[in-house]
Amino acid sequence: MSAATAARGPWTRAGLVLAGVLAADQLVKALVVGSLERGEQRDILAGIKLVNTRNTGVAFGQLQDGGALVAVVIAIAIGALLVYFGRHARTPLMWLPTGMLLGGALGNIVDRIREGAVVDFLKLPHWPAFNVADASITVGVVILLVVIERDDRARAST
C-alpha cells in the first residue's frame, strides 16, 4: 500500500462518519418538523419531551441571535479541527471524533442555511433542547479528548 493510499484511509473513514451523522441528523429533524407544529411538544418518557423549536445560537443556546459572530466561531472551529486532523490523521481512531464533529457541525449549518436557525427537538428536564448534530458534537469532543490522551500516553511510554 502506498503512503498516499494509507493517508486517505483516515480521511475516508472520517468522511463516512460525517455522512452518517449528517444523514441521521437531517432525517430525524425532517420527521420532527413533519410531525410537530413549531413550538409544539409531546411527552415521551419521564420528563423527556419531543419538541419542535429553533436555536439561533451555538451549543445549547449560547450566543443567541449572534449572526455573523456565530458564523465566525463555527468557521474557526471547523478550520482548527481540519488542521488538527490533517496533522494527526494517523493517530488511531482520530477519524471517529473528527467525523462526528464535522457531521454535527454540517448538520446544524444546513439548518442555518435552510431555516435561519438550528432545529432542536429533544428536551430533557433542566436542559436546553438539542438534536442529533448537537449530541454528535458533544460525544465527539469527549472521544477526541480520550484519543488525544491515549496518544499522549503512548508517546510518553516510548
Which key phrases capture this entry?
alpha+beta, three-stranded antiparallel sheet, elongated
Concise summary:
This protein is an alpha+beta fold. The chain has helices at about 5-35, 70-90, 95-115, 130-155; strands at about 40-45, 50-55, 120-125. The protein starts with a helix and ends with a helix.
Description:
This protein is of the alpha+beta class and 158 residues long. It has one domain. Helices cover 63% and strands 12% of the residues. It has helices at 3-35, 68-88, 95-115, 132-156; strands spanning 41-45, 48-55, 118-123. A three-stranded antiparallel sheet has the order 1-2-3. α1 (3-35) crosses α3 (95-115), α2 (68-88) runs antiparallel to α3 and α3 packs antiparallel against α4. The longest helix has 33 residues, at 3-35. The two termini are 26 Å apart. The mean pLDDT is 89.
How do the helices and strands line up, and which of them pair or pack?
Layout: H1 3-35, E1 41-45, E2 48-55, H2 68-88, H3 95-115, E3 118-123, H4 132-156
Antiparallel strand pairs: 1-2, 2-3
Helix pairs in contact: 1-3, 2-3, 3-4
